[in-house]
Amino acid sequence: MLMRYATHHMEEKIMKIERPFRGYCLLFAAVLCFTNASTCCAEQAKNPFDKTVRVAAHLEPAIPHSAQEKAARDKLATLKAKTGRAPNILIIVVDDMGWGDIGVNGGGVAVGAPTPHIDSLARGGLNLTSTYAQSTCTPTRAALMTGRFPARTGLTRPLMAGEQMKVNPWADEEPAAKLLSAAGYKTAISGKWHVGEPEGTRPHEVGYDEYLGILAVNSEITQAIDERLYPDLVLRPERLAALRKLVLPVVTAGEKGKPTRTVMEFKTIDQVGNSDQMFADYSVDFIKRSATEKKPFYLVHAFSKVHNDNYPATGYKGKSPAGFPYKDAIVEVDDIVGRLMKTLKETNQAENTLVFFTSDNGANEDTWPDGGYNPWRGGKGTTWEGGVRVPGIAYWPGMIAPRPASDGLFDLMDLFNTSLAIAGETNRVSDKRYIDGVDQSGFLLADEGESARQCVFMYSEKELTAVRWMEYKVHTKVYQSAGPMKNLDESVLSKAVWPWVYNLYMDPKEQRSTGHRYFEWGLTAVVSMLNDHAGTYAKYPMKSLGLELPK
User: Fold this and answer.
1) Tens of pLDDT along 253-291?
2) Closest listed residue to residue 362, CA positions, set 383, 382, 388
3) Residue from 33, 65, 117, 194 carrying the catalytic annotation
4) In the predicted model, is pLDDT for residue 359 greater than 80?
5) Domain residue spans of the chain
């Protein structure tokens, strides 16, 4: 039992504490056991709060909902009989968009950047208000594609310019695109990649049929061009030459089995500003080609915006009511979403395409005013709600009935399982890897579907820091910042003396922890979940790519 293990070395000291406080100390000792060990020791009885069922050792346990699961299967079977082929999947990922940037979440017009097309998806489908990502971009993208925690893939932090990994993370991973390509899908990613630049780690080399975009991140391009923001680099030829040996500011493309080719080198700010229009052109063409070829497609459209540094595309300068470049970028993103939806309709594929709209992490407050909006505490780089809670919208005419927003838990890792379930290809998932995502097809497709996910675990690289369960958020390690909007640049991660617990319905900004006062009843259940989660690393250990930073 985890409690017994956790208190083995502390029992003598704890038993000297006054009796009313022993329970608290013993319980938190169990939490400390998890946060300082990657495995747990012994089995414990199933907690009565635990609603999940584990159907296989390599699959994350999920809450069974037999009726809605059957409803989803029936809907999919009827659709396939009508169309004659598997459904398409379009995942739209914005870079660094805040939960509150879109209108249906309280942003849009209210914060100076209307988002009518994105709002239309939410009103015509399902707005998932408790959608969670990892706290930074590379980990989220890896998790979304593999259904696995970054601690398992090794992609635990954003990759830096020209960084060489000691191990190719994709050598033993199978992203959804690879599995669906093998099943006859036409698969592609358009826009930002940022989960591997060296040969052997690029999209068309790890499972995608084709790709067009940037291998790194927007700021790595702009820092080599904008002398106003980066004069100490751009105006120093020797430094700039050294940077270009690490990373070239280029758009690249590739097809499976063929070498990567350079499509364009960024030389001006205007080229940077218009890059998402290029990626949109590619996605539109890909959707049209898929319709002509009558093949189901899996497309990840990954914006380079609204990650800093934002520059307006042609026709978008000052187009937002706010007039700032970030807000103009939001308006552009919304227009491109509308353009992708229009293409689906024009090619008669809207009713056969699941569309999921999201962001890779919360708003980056450190780059303000070139950053987004959260109504939550913290931002990108932390596991406060502002860092990990992101927009999540599922849209599928005729398959996802328009319904009120849901607060059911959804982790972006669930897109891996859900995509394969919708495609009817779950049998392709190997038991050699632990899958942390769960199938949410029933949640999305049943008219009154509920989430199959019991809790969301949150990490800082390889350290578990928090867990969301029902409306509760429990932190075992916390980010503390030196000042406002300093989540990445001036924060430290500290071990909590006692779990910091917040009821997100009553305290959504995570301002006042009341764990020992109002949540003693739930801590045992949370510890049990942490114990079970930690136990999965015994058979499916963490992977190291040599990305650990010096301590």
Assistant:
1) 999 999 999 999 999 999 999 999 999 999 999 999 999
2) 388
3) 194
4) yes
5) 1-45+527-551, 88-153+167-220+253-258+266-432
Tens of pLDDT, residues 59-88: 999 999 999 999 999 999 999 999 999 999
- What is the spatial distance between Cα 82 and Cα 246, in angstroms, rounded to a whole number? 51
Considering the candidates 33, 137, 475, 533, report the single residue annotated as catalytic.
137
Query: Is 9 an annotated catalytic residue?
Result: no
Annotation marks residue 194 as catalytic: yes
Q: Is the CB of residue 345 less than 8 Å from the CB of residue 80?
A: no
Give me 24's structure tokens. 């608290």
Contact between 272 and 295 (Cβ < 8 Å): no
Residues shown for the chain: 551
Distance CA 536, CA 243 (A): 41
User: What distance in Å separates the CA atoms of residue 200 and residue 81, rounded to the nearest whole number?
Assistant: 39
**What's the pTM value of the predicted model, to 2 decimals?**
0.93
Mean pLDDT of the 87-102 span: 98
CATH 3.30.565.10 fits 88-153+167-220+253-258+266-432, yes or no: no
Q: Give alpha helix (H) positions in 154-274.
A: 176-182, 218-222, 231-234, 237-246, 269-273
DSSP code string of 388-448: HEE-EEEE-TTTS-----B---EETTHHHHHHHHHHT-GGG--TTS-B-----HHHHHSTT
Give the Cα separation of 117 and 37 in Å (integer).
46
Please state at what angle helix 137-146 crosses helix 414-423, rounded to 10 degrees: 30
Percent of the chain with pLDDT over 90: 87
What's the CA gap between 275 and 454, in Å, rounded? 39
Cα distance from N-terminal residue to C-terminal residue, the chain: 32
State whether residue 464 is helix, strand or coil: strand
For residue 386, the Cα-to-chain-centroid distance in whole angstroms is 13
Residue linked to tokens 């998806």: 121
Percent of the chain with pLDDT over 70: 92
Task: Evaluate if residue 18 carries a pLDDT over 90.
Answer: no
225 forms beta bridges with none
Q: In whole angstroms, how far apart are CA 511 and each of 14, 54, 132, 387, 500?
A: 29, 35, 20, 15, 10
